């Protein structure tokens, strides 16, 4: 009598790094992706009986990414993620869902003599772009198949496409305060009407599956988030998060919902009084730890 | 008319690093924890209206960890996580759930002249121990409050306690193969009856809330996992995962379920033939990327 | 009779992170520095006898950085490094040399409605700027005081100022080859006339101590390096290194010498032939390891 | 007329990760090394003229490490580093010096039923072992060839062998103080007779080139350093550094000199008084930044 069971399982390949150069004339287009593939499905015998006949090796997943990057045309991480995820659903009847996450390094053309160079690039964005697809076989999906995407939610059947950005560093030196908060016996934080607000933005937004210009959406979304951050009079990280979400949904109609994770990268005023000096909100210690983290999802009504 | 809404939210403090020294006589006991706190509840006005009156500052969460580490007695990360999570549920009616994750650095006493030293320690385990508690207010819990714990599942009301380990490095040089797998047009991997199996084990197990000896359970679990890894004749990472789970549930009755994440840290045989040499399964390249990842959860029937 | 001796020593404080906001009107200027201080001198008794009377605590070094950031005016990491190093030489007769390294995070103003914002910033450079000063007491300097600066050379007495950049990511997709190299029995690398050249530039240059505009020099140097990288027809990483150095010395007369460290971040063509495809220099694997490293220093005759 | 010159140069391959399994009977011996090779010599034309005829590709260096790991017998990172460095000096007349650094992952056999397992391993040391060799051609060595080894010193001609350890984490909870230090206007640190002393030890020692048992020396050195750390009544990190050096030279006669780098991983007492509690040297914040760094070299008279 079996007394234990495999309650859940999935597997895949991480950190498949691929460079694609499209050489249509002297001006080259460069894609640099880090791809992650995860599959769920009827793999129980691999675990419980050592029967590998249903096991698609993760080495094959890697090869598939390489081959599809050559065989198929795409212009965005979202499109390439859709291509990869669909491949596994269409090729293997025992795969119930496929998730593909792509991190894209954002290269900008180097300006030379006032013109953008044709084939030389540098990074003008410290962050990364994200494309994420969960493709679930229609009609399928058992209880144990927990989704692993950024927002953790996937439809029963069909594709869910998400875009986003990771690690967009921003800071503002005024128009940010934090006051009137709840005070309990363990509260020592002072209220402030003027503090530094620094964060590294992670944002993930839900996108249509039907044909849209994912690159235009990304550029609009990134610019909107930066502008909303810059211009908001912030009463809390939470309020700025909501404001950025509101602005994004107002300006980019294709986006149905956006989730943010905002670490609060504290800048703490230094007490200079031991040295006979007063600190007029000028000198701060930048601390890496501990740090606050604010999560929130803003959706259309 | 409002056209957007806050669909989900939570916040907290990460990377609260605390050292506690218990000086009961000359033999000191040392705890080093990295604590993370997350709260969910009625915080919507903080986001949408900039009304901070319900906002428990993350700075207060940090202070609370410090104060409770002094005021309360505990002997394990699981116990301390329970104390912290319960504090927030009991202190604030508008908090619907609290999650506390603790990573513990595992210090071992330095041997001097054949005896374990009273107050000097080194690390004999490259990994970390984990204690995790999700405490949900009884009767509460709204749809948008997605849990964020390792296994992503929490009861409606009450506490869920988990233990685990992170980053336990292991390697075996034989008794591991991978053959008879599915072959498709993208498969180039060769079958092998004798390969190196290297991984960094992450494991999380479900524990009782009622009084048990969490430290004894951790030691038993860690030893059982290591022994199962060492002695298994592996046909795949998946099968070894399941075998470790079976062994753990057989040997540690308090554990109801265990989840593993096992990266496959590939060691690839070097082709020495260009140098007129043959490689008798002796020389390998250790690669960091790309890497396979195998997940699985083993539960009692 | 003493049988061992202290042959060398130095100490200091690392990772002193400081933010300074200069609020001259509505347009704020933001400096974010990570400072490292090292001192050498007559500290032997601290080590050998536990006599701390000559020991300037590293905590004091940290406080000194904070206080000087307030008390003194500066516009560049080079100037601030000079201020800090001179402070220790002037304040303590037993300090023989002081080295100060500053890493500056490069913040750019966020554009809003076509204008650069007054107080909100993001990062448009993934790299960091460096200012480094070694200040040695005139007439002093004993044998054991090995310098620790980037180029490892310091004058006997006086200040040596260096600027530089760290982690400037660049890539070019053509106009780069590697051929006609030495071939020995262990060579399997194929010659190529067209490969991808990707690197993360570290550069350190020697600067005058007398008043110059360190910020203008940095901007000129950075732009010159990027342009030289973009426009060079490269026969090797080494040759491009030398070409960037030549261009820098030609365009920026204040720089006497420049040292580069260039990791070769290989992009390796994927063999697609197992899948019936040919790879026309289009699809590459980006590998992190192993990687080549090329060092070189270019100086004026 | 040439106006610039190549003042210094060297190059090599980093992060060559290799696994060697010696299968002499059922008990396997496992070596896991990360190798770095650097060469100096007559490579100027590669830089200045794009003439690659003297350039040994870094890819060839990698292959050489693989081939020598098979062709040659060794039992320690020091021996393997000597083999690699000598190869380049003996094979290429234009190579003036070769430096090889090896980081070894320290695997321990997993105990199963009270016996150490034959082929399954885990890590019982969070640190790494180091072997380092600089081999300089006899009679050679020009001014610009700055050595790059841990201690930065190399003989003119012949081999210099060093061993060491990296990242050995230690902590002691008493018998450590810091008082009677220099006080200046920027000093706010309080004297303490009982503080926590935590550090991550890096140590590099000079070894004979003639045949010695490098593995026995490493084990003796590691144990001696741990014991000296545990038993010392510390008045400063500096004094403990010197004490560990003294002990090492006293116990391990083959070691001529040892250099330590000791970060001071501060544990700062938490002020619990705002919560009506007193902290009897029991609760500390573990901070990662800023941190002190103490360097020192202890040599025989």
Trace the largest sheet of chain A across and list its strands: 1-2-3-4-5-6-7-10
User: Mean of the pLDDT scores of chain A?
Assistant: 94
CATH structural fold name of the largest domain in chain A? Urate Oxidase
CATH architecture grouping of the largest domain in chain A: Roll
Radius of gyration of chain A: 23 Å
Shape descriptor of chain A reads: globular
Order of helices and strands of chain A: EEHHHEEEEHHEEEE
How many strand elements of chain A? Answer: 10
Broad structural category of chain A? alpha+beta
How would you sum up the major sheet of chain A? 8 strands, antiparallel
Described by its quaternary structure, the protein is: homotetramer
Strand content of chain A: 35-45%
Which two chains form the greatest contact, residue counts included? Answer: A-B, 80 and 80 residues
Write the topology of this structure.
The structure is a homotetramer of 301-residue chains.
Chain A: E1 4-22, E2 29-41, H1 44-49, H2 58-71, H3 77-91, E3 95-112, E4 115-136, E5 158-172, E6 197-207, H4 214-231, H5 237-251, E7 257-264, E8 267-269, E9 283-286, E10 291-300
Antiparallel strand pairs in A: 1-2, 2-3, 3-4, 4-5, 5-6, 6-7, 7-10, 8-9
Summarize the entry for a quick read.
The structure is a homotetramer of 301-residue chains. With 301 residues, the first copy, chain A, is of the alpha+beta class. Helices cover 23% and strands 41% of the residues of chain A.
């Amino acid at each position: 009598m079996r007394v234990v069971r495999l309650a859940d399982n999935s597997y895949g390949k991480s950190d498949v790094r691929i460079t694609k150069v499209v050489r249509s004339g002297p001006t080259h287009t460069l894609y640099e992706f880090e791809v992650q593939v995860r599959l769920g499905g009827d793999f129980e015998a691999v675990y419980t009986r050592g029967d590998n006949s249903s096991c698609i090796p993760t080495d094959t997943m890697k090869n598939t990414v390489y081959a599809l990057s050559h065989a198929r045309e795409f212009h965005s991480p979202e499109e390439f993620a859709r291509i990869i995820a669909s491949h596994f659903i269409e090729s293997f009847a025992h795969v119930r869902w496929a998730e593909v996450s792509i991190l894209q390094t954002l290269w900008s053309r180097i300006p030379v003599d006032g013109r953008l160079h044709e084939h030389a690039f540098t990074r003008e964005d410290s962050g990364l772009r994200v494309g994420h697809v969960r493709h679930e076989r229609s009609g399928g999906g058992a209880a144990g198949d927990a989704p692993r995407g950024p927002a953790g939610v996937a439809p029963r059947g069909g594709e869910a496409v998400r875009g986003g950005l990771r690690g967009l560093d921003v800071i503002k030196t005024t128009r940010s305060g934090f006051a009137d908060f709840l005070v309990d016996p363990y509260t020592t934080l002072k209220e402030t009407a003027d503090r530094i607000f620094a964060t590294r933005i992670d944002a993930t937004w839900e996108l249509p599956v039907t044909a849209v210009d994912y690159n235009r959406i990304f550029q609009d979304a990134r610019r909107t988030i930066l502008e909303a951050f810059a211009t908001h009079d912030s009463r809390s990280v939470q309020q700025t998060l909501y404001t950025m979400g509101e602005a994004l949904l107002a300006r980019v109609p294709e986006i149905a919902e956006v989730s943010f994770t905002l670490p609060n990268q504290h800048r703490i005023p230094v007490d200079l009084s031991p040295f006979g000096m007063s600190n007029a909100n000028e000198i701060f210690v930048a601390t890496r730890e501990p740090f606050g983290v604010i999560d929130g999802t803003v959706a259309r009504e």
